Amino acid sequence: MSNWYSQPAPADDIIISTRIRLARNLSGIPFPSRMNDEQRSELSERVKKAVLESNTPFAKSLRFIDMKDVPENEIYSMVERHIISPEFAGSSHRRSIIISDDESISIMIGEEDHIRIQVILGGLQLEKAYDIAERLDTLLGDALHFAFDSRLGYLTECPTNLGTGLRASVMLHLPMVESSGEIRALADSVGKIGFTVRGMYGEGTKATASLYQISNQITLGISEKNAIDNLKIIATQLMEKERNERGALDKLKAEDLCWRSFGILKNCRLLSSDEMMNLLSKIKLGIGMGIIDIKEPPIKLMIEGQPYMLMRKYGIMNSDERDIYRANMIRKALE
Amino acid sequence: MSNWYSQPAPADDIIISTRIRLARNLSGIPFPSRMNDEQRSELSERVKKAVLESNTPFAKSLRFIDMKDVPENEIYSMVERHIISPEFAGSSHRRSIIISDDESISIMIGEEDHIRIQVILGGLQLEKAYDIAERLDTLLGDALHFAFDSRLGYLTECPTNLGTGLRASVMLHLPMVESSGEIRALADSVGKIGFTVRGMYGEGTKATASLYQISNQITLGISEKNAIDNLKIIATQLMEKERNERGALDKLKAEDLCWRSFGILKNCRLLSSDEMMNLLSKIKLGIGMGIIDIKEPPIKLMIEGQPYMLMRKYGIMNSDERDIYRANMIRKALE
After folding, report:
1. pTM of the complete model
2. What is the pLDDT of residues B198-226, one digit of tens each?
3. Rounded distance, CA A81 to CA A107, Å?
4. Cα B84 vs. chain centroid, distance in angstroms?
5. Could A252 and B270 be called an inter-chain contact, meaning their C-beta atoms sit closer than 8 Å?
6. Secondary structure (3-state) at A148
7. Which residues of B touch A (CB under 8 A)?
8. Which residues contact A89 (CB under 8 A, 6 or more apart)?
9. d(CA A146, CA A139)
């Protein structure tokens, strides 16, 4: 089954993906940072049972994976595919995950919270993603007893998740907004209404390829619906802004920029991850502007060209060797 | 008939062209800077007659052109093809020229000196070029009376040409010598033995595309043969140096550099003259190293992509329009 990033999706000329994450904890056992091995195993088993033994359509497409059975390189490639968080990947504790065949659903067990439900879809699909997450939440909530306070809401390890436990985010491709120098002003203004702007690979990562993630910061005193509605408004406004700036662009200069990037990607023999990201970003812009078309979505190539994704396909190698394999992979993909 | 830059030539992986220039003046009439219109016309007629009415094989391939019949844009395209000097092109005086069909021979009449015989050939062909120049010199000398001093040699307007009146030059493509930072040291060392290093379009032009012209500066107290032999030694040494540095180059990095340049040239929609020169220089390096091959010699494309050469083919246009036509021309040439 093909991944979210391999298929066309609504508004995906500018909005790359939508992600919903719900943080949940079971009452009666300590937060993961203070759990012992036995409690970890117990947590894992309980969540596994709750999901896989339920008689829902979800169960068919979901599989349980004990992270101790997954090679380290595969684990980091899951981060690159946005299935798990870098923190989860790097943890030395017992962890497990439940994922769907298309990897759009992942339930991390034993991350910062007991349960992290994640739904990631291509394009702008906030309601749909939330709907899936909510059904998983109900399924799990029915089988398990979540730590919930009638005044505060869901209890979480970190107070920034307290309340709804919801983190909704959209990843946008904003090359023209970026080149107009408006990103800082944008970050400031969305910051004032409780949203944050980050790079492609989440917290602390700088933006490459003009990809920006916008997510809600406030989980307390706001409903899930409000958070999602507000994010949708921001994403839609930004999308319009980006479209307008693209419309005002000199067509010939845009064509030149895009075809040059294509020419380099189609011919280079060495390609770093950063350069790949930035050149594919130009191609994505070109596709969005109707200048060029390529067989596979640039976002798919961006993800498949990441270090661990490359090694997953071609075997373990060092950074210099990856630059060669990455160049070869992209060259073939553009044939 | 095809130009010197359209055909393969000896050592042309590194040595682009060989040029021989002889400065000659007729005795009994003032130097061009002090000639009146009548004297200019007379000079023109006398040289024309000497060449075209001679019964030599040369005569068949040579044609006389009065520069007043040549449109200004065509005149500047002749500079770009290295047929005439920029000074000759820019002069407001009556001038004429005798050129061969393949444009390898040109005789400027009324440049700084009465007569400037020029032979330009592809690759390293100093003896052959000098041989042709000498035959033209003999032909002209037999029919006209050259200003000659038994002690000084040929008399010229500028003392730097006094004696042999010979300027022999070779144009070399030295990307690796250049990138090793040795050009300044090279210029200093050849300067000490009476040679000078310049850019592609002669005096005062900076080097683009790693193209360097080396020519003798001394015309007094040295025989033509010595000047040419010394230049040949320098050119050969530099060629070996460049070849050695190419041999030490990381093959993959060279391939990457060369194919990227190809990719940009093959796909760009806007191309400045400078960028074209530098990218074609990388392709020429790639051809020399056996990495890539293209239908037409890079040097031909470099010349045909010059501003007046472009306008000669596609009509008068401004610089922005030329960038479009240049990109289109190169793109087609690389198909």
Report:
1. 0.91
2. 877 655 566 789 999 999 999 998 999 99
3. 14
4. 9
5. yes
6. strand
7. 252-253, 255-256, 259-260, 262-270, 324, 327
8. A75, A76, A78, A79
9. 12
